[in-house]
Amino acid sequence: MAPAPAKAIPSDDAAHVLVVDDDSRIRQLLAKYLGTNGFRVTGAADASEARQKLSAIDFDLLVLDVMMPGEDGLSLAGSLKRTSDVPILLLTARAEASDRVRGLETGADDYLTKPFEPRELLLRLNNLLRRRAGADARPGAVERIGFGRFVFDVKREELRDGDEVVRLTDRERQLLTLFATSPEGTVSREALAGPEAGVGERSVDVQINRLRRKIEDDPANPIHLQTVRGIGYRLRFD
Asked: What is the dihedral of CA 235, 107, 80, 176, to 10 degrees?
């Protein structure tokens, strides 16, 4: 009988994921699967336990169940995004588009419906890590763009309002990078949704509106981030 293959042991510098779910079976399954695929995994049974662990550990990613007793995942995600830019992937049994939109409105970076394929979760988590790391600078690539009083550093994926750094979600950094590296700052709705985003075009509208609230004096009448009818959106930069 052949010996069983050795289990992969995540290295100390592997990405650390906090899985928050009141279902202990799901926590255990995700810990096992993600652990064998190179992640360090910590579990929490509810929002209160998650907050305790977040206060002690700097996690690289959060996998957060929406439906939990006590404080639900949407409330926790919205609270965390006001003070942290850690990427959040929401898990939920609700598949309606309106539920996905609500999740993304909290500032969450991605959304996955239960039941799901573990491989899809793994791909989405790796995509979130790549977005956070940012794209390497390329010869001749745009290094920064300015619009109004704002400057976006493409390499660092950092937005400044004068001397102040504007807090962005990973998805908002990705959107600004797409605009900065596109001809005349115009990007189609399909390209903004993209294969990695895992969201529909309606969710793109929600994300654009959220970004407008950070860069427009009057988000209802945008000057910088404008709608291009029949195409998508354009960021008018200098």
From this structure: -20
pLDDT tens-digit readout, 20-40: 999 999 999 999 999 999 899
> Which helix (H) or strand (E) covers residue 116, if one does?
none
**Are 143 and 203 contacting, i.e. CB atoms less than 8 angstroms apart?**
no
CA distance 189 to 200: 9
The dihedrals phi and psi of 70, each to the nearest 5 degrees, come to 75, -140
Pairing of β 88-92 and β 61-65: parallel
pLDDT at position 119 over 70: yes
Helices (H) and strands (E) in the chain, counts: 8, 12
User: Which tens digits make up the pLDDT trace of 128-170?
Assistant: 887 766 533 444 456 789 999 999 998 888 999 988 999 998 8
CA distance 144 to 158: 9
Domain 144-235 = CATH 1.10.10.10? yes
Q: How many other CB atoms are there within 10 angstroms of residue 1's CB atom? A: 3
Domain 16-133 and domain 144-235, same fold? Reply is no
Give the residue carrying structure tokens 């004096």: 217
From 172, 176, 203, 173, select the one nearest 187 (Cα to Cα): 176
Amino acid at 41: V
Record: fold of 16-133: Rossmann fold (3.40.50)
Which residues neighbour 214 within 8 Å (Cβ) at sequence distance 6 or greater?
159, 166, 168, 172
Q: What percent of the chain has pLDDT over 70?
A: 84
List the chain domain ranges: 16-133, 144-235
